[in-house]
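Propose amino acids for all 331 sites.
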């Protein structure tokens, strides 16, 4: 097998991914929307760029990059229809294909986190059972829209019964945890058989982080991510978070064999007693890792060299390629 090129889609964490690929000696290809190639080329990280009109155009041009491995990122799942991807896309994708299905369903997500023994916010099957503040998440909705908060059971009933559509909509009713959000990212290495705590970020979310919060209706906040900023955990918390990451990987090995590989992020809230709750996860590189080009405190301590998440992914591919194990880390 010839050494693969590394390819990603121009958005989200493409700069991070391609810089890392170049640092590991890979040739790179960027596929991006018309009008954006110039931006990416200006950084000197693309050996080749292909502009497309629509994201779905990649299906028609696969012959142009069948020597590549695709690195999926946060936008990838959003842009591409899972079914079509499975049926019509033939280029190897870094990661575990079976994870996609688990990630696209809030209930399955919770099931996996519970199987890992993580502490989850309580979930309520029936509104009648609610006895504390909750956050209501419609299936398919994202924090940018369609979430609401109810502080009391009365408020919850009012919201749910507001319209017949609202009543019918499938939703996750989840305990609202009062605390501080943390978003630790990890790297699961199949080749080195270990789970690395990589970096921790926090997210600036509009409008919950707006300085003039007094102006919005607090029961209907949005959580649209505006940016990310870095965090180091108090060390005792880092120890616990690392265990959670390892337990999560163990659960994916049992439920989604052979298990998740590569980058992932646990989305957590730490309460006043330092209890850590996990309310969501991402099974791939998150934009919070972008801050850590060229490295995070944790990745530097582990590697003693500049190691960004983009570079870590490329290093894994290089390691796998050298020992003929690429098919274990791609699908
Ligand atoms: N149970 C919870 N307790 C406290 N805050 C939460 C909880 N669930 C979600 N949030 C907040 O809402 C944001 C978006 O929720 P999340 O479940 O991650 O949805 P999305 O699919 O939009 O990422 C989180 O980043 C966090 O700030
Ligand atoms: Mg989230």
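Proposal:
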């Amino acid at each position: 097998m010839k050494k693969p090129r590394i390819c990603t889609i121009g958005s989200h964490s493409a700069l991070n991914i391609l810089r890392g690929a170049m640092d590991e000696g890979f040739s790179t290809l960027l596929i991006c929307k018309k009008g954006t190639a110039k931006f990416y080329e200006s950084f000197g990280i693309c050996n080749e760029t292909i502009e497309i009109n629509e994201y779905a155009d990649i299906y028609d041009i696969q012959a142009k990059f069948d020597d590549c491995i695709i690195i999926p990122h946060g936008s990838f799942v959003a842009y591409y229809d899972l079914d079509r991807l499975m049926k019509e896309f033939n280029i190897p994708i870094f990661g575990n294909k079976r994870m996609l299905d688990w990630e696209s369903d809030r209930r399955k997500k919770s099931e996996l986190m519970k199987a890992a023994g993580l502490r989850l916010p309580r979930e309520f099957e029936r509104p009648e059972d609610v006895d504390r503040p909750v956050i209501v998440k419609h299936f398919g909705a994202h924090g940018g829209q369609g979430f609401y908060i109810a502080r009391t059971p009365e408020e919850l009933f009012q919201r749910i019964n507001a319209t017949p559509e609202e009543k019918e909509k499938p939703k996750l009713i989840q305990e609202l945890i009062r605390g501080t959000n943390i978003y630790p990212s990890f790297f699961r290495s199949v080749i080195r058989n270990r789970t690395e705590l990589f970096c921790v970020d926090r997210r600036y979310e509009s409008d919950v982080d707006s300085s003039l919060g007094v102006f919005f209706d607090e029961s209907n906040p949005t959580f649209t991510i505006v940016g990310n900023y870095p965090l180091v955990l108090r060390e005792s918390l880092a120890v616990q978070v690392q265990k959670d990451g390892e337990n999560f990987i163990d659960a994916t090995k049992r439920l989604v064999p052979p298990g998740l590989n590569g980058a992932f992020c646990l989305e957590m809230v730490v309460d006043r007693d330092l209890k850590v709750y996990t309310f969501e996860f991402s099974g791939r590189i998150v934009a919070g890792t972008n801050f850590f080009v060229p490295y995070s405190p944790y990745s530097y301590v582990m590697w003693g060299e500049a190691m960004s998440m983009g570079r870590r992914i490329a290093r894994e591919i290089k390691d796998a390629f050298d020992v003929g194990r690429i098919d274990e880390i791609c699908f």
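The chain has a mean pLDDT of 94. Residues 105 and 140 are 8 Å apart (CA to CA).
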